[in-house]
Amino acid sequence: MAKITYIAHDGTKNEIDVPTGQTVKDGAVNNLIPGILAECGGACACATCHVYVDEAWWDKTGKPGAVEADMLDFANEVKETSRLSCQIEVSDALDGLVVHIPEDQ
Amino acid sequence: MKVVVVGAGHAAGQLVAALRMQQFEGDIRLIGEEPYPPYQRPPLSKQYLSGEIDLESVYFKPADFYDQAKAELSLSLRVEAIDRSGKTVTLSDGSGVDYDKLVLATGTRVRKLTLPGADLEGVHYLRSIEDTDAISRDLRPGARIVVCGGGYIGLEVAAAAVKKGAAVTVLEMADRVMNRVVAPVVSAFYEDLHKANGVDIRTDVKVSGFEGSGRVEKVVTEGGEDFAADLVVVGVGVIPNTELAEEAGLACDNGIVVNEFAQTEDPDILACGDCTNHPSAIYGINVRLESVQNAVDQANAVAKTICGVPTPYIAVPWFWSDQYDVKLQIVGLSQGYDQAVVRGDPAGGSFSVFYLKKGRLIAVDAINSPREYMMGRKLISEGAEPDPEKIVNTDISVKELV
Q1: Which residues of A touch B69 (CB under 8 A)?
Q2: Residues 6+ apart with CB under 8 A from B397
Q3: SS3 of B138, please?
Q4: What is the ipTM of this complex?
Q5: What is the pLDDT along chain A (105 residues), one digit of tens a residue?
Q6: Which residues in chain A have Cβ-Cβ distances shorter than 8 Å to B65?
Q7: Contact criterion met (CB below 8 Å) for B284 and B120
Q8: Helix, strand or coil for residue B302?
Q9: In the list B54, B176, B200, B334, which could disulfide-bond B187, CB 3.0-4.6 Å?
Q10: Is the CB of A45 less than 8 angstroms away from the CB of B42?
């Protein structure tokens, strides 16, 4: 279990306990947090679960993989710490992770 | 307000989430024939069949989601009839359930073969968790599996069976695999891919029956060749479950007919997912789609209509298929194309096909090419007319195509 904080574009914070082995996307959609659509259900096929990893956590989540990076290149408002949240698996090492949700997917 | 959903598949599960995200505060009840909460079907022919993921991971949401969302799951129950004037449905246990809004998310069922021996033990279809579990029990290392039908399901089953150490044969009656949905160059790529992984792919082969004493032992074909089999998986398409709607007097035509707001002709009955026939604004025709994208987007449209903020469903359709380490992403509908332009080299394992109709881009098949897929999605929704000479030139970035 890891505590993950999702910060919406308007500053709204949601702290969620996400089971190890689920993804950062799962934590959001299973708890009805707005802003992460994840239309494909986590197959890395739609780029609608885009988040910005808080800079303090960037080293721990790591960079996107090759397919993910290609998909992200077409997402809206991409930044250096952009990731697709369906590709970030939750582990104890990510306890306390903070992610920011973009204005649009 | 009481929303009753007939069906508890992907669309129904999404509808619960979408209604609550729209701040819907009324009652929600899903009535599902299967004993499981809403689950994802795509993994059933992929990671769940190959044993890479467990049952829990197949579920659409964790078990406690429905409690938290205050949605009632009535499982292992069928809806037998709809009384439109009384706004009630009758369930298989004889009870009645009242509704204010009824949503038909009845999905599809597999098309079954009526050939001799088709009911022998060991002849499987794949639609449900139970189907995949039954296939898995027969799919021991070294087992000889004959797959009838070289579409998505058949080919994904073949790839998963290879992973499990089975000896795999695929029989396709057309002259190439996936012939209904992709251009010949893509079919050829997949035939080569499967052959390289040890699968015996046979095209132009028509199955005439199955033989065995109680249990299937061989598949018999019209050409006279027999294929020894420890198990058979048939993947020859699905049929929309429209009977309930038809008996209630609702219009059906290869699916339950709905408008862009997912409404049937009865203002209190909506429908979403694989079972619907709906207008596609982008293509100017009515379509019935079998996909996660359609289930999710149309369920979202249902939620918005019910919540009084109707928003037309106009998404570009998309699909994917995972076979071995190859990711096929399809966006758009290629039916009726007059030009298929290949970008990249199939021999290199990564390429895409841009389908044009009178110059306009209508679909892209992207094989290990997520950038082309993503750009295709954007271009199709914009009605773009990319220059074929630019498409084939991989020195030009996909972002510069238009």
Answers
A1: 32
A2: none
A3: helix
A4: 0.88
A5: 999 999 999 999 999 999 998 999 999 999 999 899 887 777 777 888 999 999 999 999 999 999 899 999 988 899 999 999 999 999 999 999 999 999 988
A6: 30
A7: no
A8: helix
A9: B176
A10: no
Whole-angstrom distance, CA of residue B306 vs CA of residue B36:
26
What distance in Å separates the CA atoms of residue B4 and residue A72, rounded to the nearest whole number? 38
Query: In B, what residues contact A, Cβ < 8 A?
Result: 17, 20-21, 40, 42, 60-62, 65, 68-69, 292-293, 296-297, 318, 320, 322, 327, 329, 370-371, 373-375, 377-378
Local structure of B8: helix, strand or coil: coil
Model confidence over B371-390: pLDDT tens digits? 999 999 999 999 999 999 99
Three-state secondary structure call for residue B186: helix
- Confirm if B200 and B169 have CB atoms less than 8 A apart: yes
CB contact under 8 A, A43 and B320: yes
Highest mean pLDDT among A71-80, B32-41, B54-63: B32-41
Tokens of B113: 């073969």
β-bridge pairing B276-280 and B256-257: parallel
Q: What values do phi and psi take at B366, rounded to 5?
A: -120, 120
Which conformational region is residue B186 in: left (phi greater than 0), alpha (psi within -120 to 50 degrees), or beta? alpha
Which two three-digit tokens encode residue B115?
A: 């050939």
Start-end of H helices in B74-180: 129-138, 152-163
**CB within 8 Å of A85: residues ≥ 6 apart:** A23, A24, A25, A28, A36, A38, A49, A50, A51, A99
Confidence (pTM): 0.95
